[in-house]
What we know:
The complex is a heterotetramer of chains A (328), B (398), C (334) and D (84).
Chain A lengths: L2 E5 H15 L3 E5 L15 H9 E3 L4 H13 L3 E8 H4 L3 H8 L2 H4 L9 E6 L14 H5 L5 E3 L4 H13 L4 E6 L6 E5 L12 E4 L4 E5 L4 H13 L4 E5 L2 E3 L3 H11 L2 E8 L4 H13 L8 E5 L8 H7 L3 H11 L3
Parallel strand pairs in A: 2-3, 2-4, 4-5, 5-7, 6-7, 10-11, 10-13, 13-14
Antiparallel strand pairs in A: 1-8, 6-12, 9-11
Helix pairs in contact in A: 1-8, 3-5, 9-13, 10-11
Chain C lengths: L2 H6 L2 H26 L14 H8 L7 E4 L4 H6 L4 H9 L16 E2 L4 E4 L6 H14 L6 E6 L6 H12 L4 E7 L2 E2 L2 E2 L9 H7 L3 E6 L3 H16 L5 E6 L17 H8 L3 H11 L5 H24 L16 H7 L1
Parallel strand pairs in C: 1-3, 1-4, 4-5, 5-9, 8-9
Antiparallel strand pairs in C: 2-3, 6-7
Helix pairs in contact in C: 2-3, 2-11, 2-12, 3-9, 5-12, 6-7
Chain D lengths: L1 H15 L14 H5 L3 H15 L14 H12 L5
Helix pairs in contact in D: 1-3, 1-4
Amino acid sequence: MTARTITYRDAVHEALREALRGDERVFLMGEDVGYYGGAYACSKGLIQEFGEERIRDTPLSESGFVGAGIGAALGGMRPIVEIMTVNFSLLALDQIVNNAATLRHMSGGQLSVPLVIRMATGAGRQLAAQHSHSLECWFAHVPGIKVVAPATIKDARGMLSTALADPDPVIIFEHATLYNEQGELPETDDYAMEIESARISRAGGDITLITYGGSLQKTMAAAEDLATDGVDCEVIDLRSLRPIDDATIMASLAKTHRAVIVDEGWRSVGLAAEISARITEQAFFDLDGPVARVCSAEVPIPYPRHLEMAATPQPDKIAAAAREVLRR
Amino acid sequence: MSEFRMPSLGADMESGRLVEWLKSPGTEVERGDIIAVVDTQKGAIEIEVFEDGVLEEILAEPGEEIPVGRTLAYIRAPGEPGREQRAAEKPKPESEAESPHTPATAKPTPSATAYPPSIPGIHMTPAARRLAAEHQVDPSTLKAGPDGVIGLSEVQAAIGAAPTPLEARPKPKARGIDPVEMRRAIAAAMMRANREIPHYYVTSTIDMTPMMNWLSARNAERAIEDRLLYAAPLLRAVALSFAKFPDLNGTFEKGAFVPADRVNIGMAIAVRGCGLITPAILDADRHDVDTLMTKLNDLVKRARAGGLRSSELSMGTATLTNLGDRTADGLMPIIFPPQVAIVGCGQISERPWVVKGEVVARQLMEMTFAGDHRASDGRRGAQFLSHLASLLGKPEGL
Amino acid sequence: MSADNQVSLSRAEAMALLGQMILIRRFEEKCAELYSAQKIRGFLHLYIGEEANAVGVMRALSPDDAVVATYREHGHALARGLPPGEVMAEMYGKAGGSSRGRGGSMHIFDKKHRFYGGNAIVGGGLPLAVGLALADKMQKLNRVTCCFFGEGAAAEGEFHESMNLAALWQLPVLFVCENNGYAMGTGLSRSESETSILQHAKSYRITGEDVDGMDVVAVRAAALSAVGAIRNGGGPRFLENKTYRFRPHSMFDPDLYRQKQEIAQWKTRGPVVQFSKWVIETQLLSQSDIDGLEEEAARTIDEAVRYAEESPWEPEEDLERDVYTPRKVEETAR
Amino acid sequence: MAQEYEKIVKDALLSVAPDLEGEEIVPDETFRDQFEIDSIDFLNYVIGLSKATGLDIPEVDYPELESLQGAVAYLRRRKGSMGF
C-alpha cells in the first residue's frame, strides 16, 4: 500500500469533496465556506466545483443556519454545517441542544436529524479569549448528539463520511493547530473511519495517557520523553468524546494501573473529570494511584505566546504528571 | 352528586387558600362557570366547574388553606335528588395521585467487600488491595513505600510475585539494609510457609549443663576475643544432626522433596528495626566449633551491616533459630521455604530437673523441631531431636 | 365577515371550519378539566380564543406541506388532522401518544402528517422551518413549510436570522405570527419598539399582511393567497394574525396583567361565536348543523379520553430508547 | 571520670551496634532490653570494653556489664582512680 504526504487541511478538503461528489443530498453551509474558501481554507475551490447552492455562504447567523441545517436534515438533506470556531457555536447552542439533540427522543423515535456540524477548536494561535477555547465537553455532555475529535490525518480524512452516514447529529471538532500538520495518508479505496471507538496510539505497560484532538501530539511527545527514563507509556486517543469508549480505557488500566488524562478543556467539571469518574466507577480496583489530570489553567486563554503556552497542556507538564502518578 | 375538589394548577402547587365563593349553595352552575377564587403562591386564580348542576353544599370556608385534591363542595347533577348533609371528607393526600412510575428499587452497587477494607492511616491503592486479597496477604503486614503509600509494587514484593517491568528496573538504593524491603521479604516468605507448608512440631527439653560447664571451663582459659558462645557448639550439633538425617536436609520443590548434597545451616539473625534474616553458614557440618564461632561472628556483623552474599541467602538447606539469653523458654518456628525443617531453641535457664531420682537444678533448654509434613513425619523429627540432644550432652565430642 | 367570503365559502367548507374550531375548543376545555384532576401534568397552554388561526391556515395547506408550531400547539395538531386520541394520550404522557408520551402537551410530533412540533423554545422553531423549506427547495419539491409562532418570538434573534435567511434564499416558508398581545404576561408595547411584527418582516423584504385572527374566514383567505404565492415561487410570505387567548398563559397563571374588561371585550369577538352567528345569518348552516358538530366533537373527545386512559405507560426499560437511532434500523435505512 | 567511663561503654556499644548512634540510653536498663542486643553483640561489646580499658573481663562478670550504669560502676571498680 502506498502512502502520500498531505496536510490535515487537505485531508478535510478531500473528505468534503468526496462527500459532495458521492451524495446529491450533501451540501456545505456556513460562514465564508464559499468564495472565501473557508476560514481555515478547508473548502477552497469547492464553490467553483459544486456551485452556490451546495456550497452555501451564510450570513453571520449561527443559530439561524445551524437550525436551518437541522430543518434541512429533517427534510431529507445531508447538510454539513461549518461553524467557524467553537466560541461562535455558543450562539447556536439553542438549536444544537434543544433541537438537534432532542428531536428523536422527544418525538418518540419518529424523527432523526442526520446533520454534521464541523467546527474549529482550541488554543495555540495567539487568538486570545474569544477564539481559543476548548468547549468539546459542553457538547459531549448532551445525549442525542455524537461528538468526535479527529486528531490525525487519517481521521480527518475518514471521519466525515462515517459521520454523514450516521442518522443522528454528529459534531466534528477540528483542532485549529492541526490544519497545517503534515502526515502520511495510506492510499485506499475507502477512507471511512468508524467514529465510536478510541485508538491506542502507542502501546505501553506502565501508565496510560488518555487524550484527544490537539493534545494528542503533545501527549505523544511526553511519552517519548518518559521513554528515555524507561517509562513505557500507553497513549489512548479517545477520538470519540460521545460516546466515550470505556472498554478501551478500562482494558488499558487493567494493564497499567495508572492514568493521566490530558484535556485542553478547563479542569473543573470537564471531560477529564468525566473520564476520571468513569475509571473510578469501572476500574477502581485496578488503580495503583490517583488519576491525574493535565488540563488548561482556569483562565480565559490569554494572547501572549508565553501565557498561552502556560495556560494549556504541554509535554513537560504531562510528563511531570505521569512521574508523580508513577511515584518517581 | 359529584365532588368539586381543590384543583391542581401546576406541579408546584400543593395547596390554595380559599378567598371567596362566587356562588352560594343552592344556585345553579354551568360547566365553565367560575365558582370560587383561590389564592396561590402565584396570586389569586379563578376556579371553574366542569359540569352543569346545582351547588349543593360548600365544605370549605374562605380563609382556609386547602390541599390540592380535597373536596371543596358537592355539585348535584340536574335531576339528581338532593342528599342529606355529609361529613367533610378527609383530605386526599396528593401522593395518592396516580403515578406512571413504580418506585425504583435501589440497584445493588458493585460490592467492594470482596476486597479488604481500607486501613485507617494506611494509604493503600485499590489495585494493591485487590492483589493483596488475591494472595491472602494481610495488609497490616505490609510496609509502605517511602512516600507512605502501599502500591502494587509493595504487595508484589511481599508475595514474591514478578513485579511489572517498571519495578524490576534497578532503583538507586541507600547503602545497607532497606527495612521496608526486608519486612516485605519476611512477609512474603512467611506467608508462603503458612500457606503451603503443613507443619508438624516435636519438642524436647535438653539438659545443657554439661555444655555450659564445658564452655565456661574452656572460655576461662581464653582471651575474651577467643571465647565461645554456646551458639557455636549448638550450630555444630545441629549441622551434624542434619548431616545424619539427609531426608530432613533439603528443599521441597515442584511437589517433591529434593535432598541437599551439603549442609548449609541458615541462622536466624535479628537485625534491629528490620526483622529477621536467615543467611546460611555453608557446609556447617565440616567446620569445627572455633571456626563456626568465627563464621557466626562474621555473619552477624555482615548481616547487620548489609554485606551478605547472595549464596548465603539462597543456599540454606535447613535453619536454626536460637532465641538466646533471657528471652523465652521456647518457640514454634516456621519453616523457611523451600526448606523442610527448622530447629528452634529457647533460652537456657536454671530449672529443677530430675537426675537419678533426685531433683536438682540444671541448665535446661527447650528445643522444637518443625518439619514439613509433605517431606517427613513427626516420628522422624523426634529421632532427629533425640540425636541432637545426645550430641549436646557430650560437648567435648563436638 | 365580508360578502366576498360568503361567496367563496361552500357549505362543506363552513362545516369543516366550524367543526374543527368546536372540536379544538371542547378539547381544550376537557384538557383544563383533566389538568385540574391531575390527569395532565407539566405546563398546559390552552389555545382557547385563537382557534381561527390554526383552522384557517391549515385549510390552505396540503398533506405534503410541513407544519412547525409552538408549545401552544394542540389546536394546530388537531387542525392538521392528527388523531385526537393520540393527541390526548400525549397530553397524558401515555405510550399511545403522538410522541409516545415523551413530549407531553408542548411537544406533539407526527411525521406522517409532517407536523414538526411542538417547540417550546420561543423562536426555536423558525430556523427549523427555514431548513425544511431549504431542503424542499434544494430537492425541487413544490412544498410549503408553515411556521406558527407568537409575537413574543419577534424579540428573539432567531426570528430575525430566520426572516433574513428565508428572504435571502427565497425559501417557501409561510410565517404565521399569532399575535395575542402578550408574551406570557408582558404586553407587546412593553416589549417591542415596533409593535407591528409585520413591519419587522417587511424590513427583510418579505411580503405579508395583517389579518383578523378572530375571523376564520379572513385567516383562511389570507393563507390561501399567501400559500398560492409561495407555490408560484414567490419566496416566503408573512401573516400577522391579531388574536387573543381567553385563558391565562398556562393553568397556573392568575392573569394579573390583563383587565377582565379586556378579556370580556375580546370574547364578544370569539371565533366560534362570531363564525356561528355568521353562518346562521347567511344561512350557510343551521342551528341543528351546529348542534350536530357539538355532538360530534363531544363524541370525538370522549373517544380520545378513553383511548388515552386505556393507553399504557411507556415501560421504564424504554427510557433510553431513541436517544440515538438503533443500529439495525440505521443499517436497513441505508 | 564517670563521664569518661560512660564514653568508653557507649563507644563499645556503638562499635557493635552503629545504628544506635544518637539513641537515648536509659542508664539502669539492660542493653538487651533496650536495644535487642543479642549474645554475639554482647560478646563483641565486652571485647570492645576489654580492648579500650586493657582489662581482662571474665565471663562471670558479664552480668555486671549489661547496663550503662552497671558497666560504668564495674569499670570504676576495676580501674579505680587509675585514670587514663
